[in-house]
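BUG-98 | component: ligand-complex export | severity: low

The export step for FE2/S2 (inorganic) cluster jobs runs without errors, but we want the raw record kept on the ticket for reference. Input record follows.
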Amino acid sequence: MFQRLPESGGATFVITVDGRAVTAREGDSVAVALLAAGFERCRTTPVSGAPRAPYCMMGVCFDCLAKVDGEASVQTCLRQVTDGMRVERQQGKRSVGA
Ligand code: FES
């Protein structure tokens, strides 16, 4: 669904998403890396389990929450990728203390 512009450059990073290695670019937000890798959702809602995907890409909608390097409920549109980052798509509500 989403494709990078041909002129997008920068260093290449490898992150893992749910244990799967994914290539990202320097300057990508985690949400961009997820969408560019073909992930169609990054969390499910706590009440109904409905899937959610990044929407606003500017920190407003909270539909991009995921667990990043062990930190739950990270707004992935506001977090830049780093090499070796571990991302887990969030299922329902986060656990207390995580
Ligand atoms: S995509 Fe809306 S807050 Fe991240």
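Assignee comment: Attached the raw record above. The mean pLDDT is 91.
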